[in-house]
Amino acid sequence: MPSRNTVDQIAFRYRSVDSATGVTRRTAKRLAEHLGVDETQAIHRALHELAVRVLPQYEADEGPLTAAQVRQIRKRVPQGGKRSVRSSLLDTETA
To answer: 31 to each of 15, 20, 62, 81, 94, how far by Cα in Å?
Structure first.
């Protein structure tokens, strides 16, 4: 059995009632059963979903483009003329 690194562990306490800030062990067990995983995995999945929803998913950039960067982009991208995009995802034919 692998040894546990106590530095990477925290104490987790279930709440006595379900609320916006926590759940009971009964709820965690029901959720884990519904997902087909153990309680620990259910907690990890919940934290992952929260992290994706709340935390930035990319590194912050240096802010807005400078005028010189905008000029470089415009120089490289053809300007003017009508453009359209076709998608094979939507059926646009009428019956």
So the answer is: 15, 16, 42, 55, 45
